[in-house]
Amino acid sequence: MPRVTAKEKILDSALRLFQQDGYLSTSVDEIIADAGVSKGSFYHAFKSKEMLGIEAIEHYLAHVISVLRDGDYHQGDDPLERVIAYIRHSESKADELWCDGCMMGNFTTDLARHHPSVRSKLKQLFTEMESQLVALFEPMVADIDCCALNAKQLARQYLSIIQGAILLGQAHKDIAVTKDCISSFRQLMESLRPH
Amino acid sequence: MPRVTAKEKILDSALRLFQQDGYLSTSVDEIIADAGVSKGSFYHAFKSKEMLGIEAIEHYLAHVISVLRDGDYHQGDDPLERVIAYIRHSESKADELWCDGCMMGNFTTDLARHHPSVRSKLKQLFTEMESQLVALFEPMVADIDCCALNAKQLARQYLSIIQGAILLGQAHKDIAVTKDCISSFRQLMESLRPH
DNA sequence: TTGACTAAACCGACTAGTCAGTCTAAACTT
DNA sequence: AAGTTTAGACTGACTAGTCGGTTTAGTCAA
Prior knowledge:
Chain A has nine helices and no strands. The first copy, chain A, is mainly alpha-helical. In chain A, helix 5 packs antiparallel against helix 9 (175-190) and helix 8 runs antiparallel to helix 9. Chain A is elongated and about 65 Å long. Chain A binds a DNA duplex through residues 1-2, 5-7, 27-29, 37-45, 48-49.
């Protein structure tokens, strides 16, 4: 068994190419050329391009989550300040994570319609992401009495802002647009500070 | 000249098919079959599929704007109440407009990368949409002193929420998710009411 | 006559997916 | 230790079909 299996090389290339060009615009031939493996290896490692897509999106989200988790916003005592620090951390990682768009959003547009199993996986992963955000917002909502939304609403709102912000950034070809949108939401949270 | 030109029939079919299946998953052959015109007519009326895409997205946005404008939220005296009524109106039109996603967002994901001219058009149309929203939020911001964001930030924030909300709705295959996101933003605005 | 249009053949490039067969390394037998 | 078997990683030519776009020959109404 080689040190790096064909499957690992394929996944590695696929993550990069899917992120760069999207699922529909990336052919299996491109992937195997980039990975330096044969067509046969591909279909030995994956049942279909669709199954590779599902594995890729799982890896992608795991990576995003790990990057977003590696901030120093955990220590703060104040739940609101922790939320603000988390958003600020997301802003600072935007270039690295989303300058070529978000694979979750792109896959939703590319595949949700005609590939039910991928759509189902995307729903699951978005729900997972949402749960993590609920855990972030929950203490804040409990701490602040005048907040208009509950934790679940805030989590979903933030998720949709992130996705919308990335999309607008793509349309403008300017990651600053993405960061501005996220920053505005942070300002909204900051306005909840007691004064 | 026939009463309905081939070009009109093509645009009509393209709008429906692009909205349903996306740009990349809709072939020229499908479009001409649906429109009941020949391939020759297609390339007589449009220089390329890409040019059809650009015309289609212009028509789409014009349609969305006209639907969103046809509300009765214009009369109100209070700028904030006008904003709230506008958002409520958008919510009520969500099924009709966005149950199959938003063509602006889908085109951004499908084409922004590899079709610079389409991307440029999308940027222009998003900017146009943003300007209209600025005009909506401007009086509200002037009226309320404690708002954390200026009109441009609010407009962009709302735009990104709409796009993100539609995307999440697609992933969940549930337009209610889309409406919930928009509704949450409305609640945020409602919390700005003086009390 | 002109311009919108039809019908269908055609093009080369590209698509996802298949298949018979090769190679290697470990397991088993003698 | 030497020879045999076997699993599965891997190969790359191949299939059948689709893609956007072109071309040709001809229709039809104003």
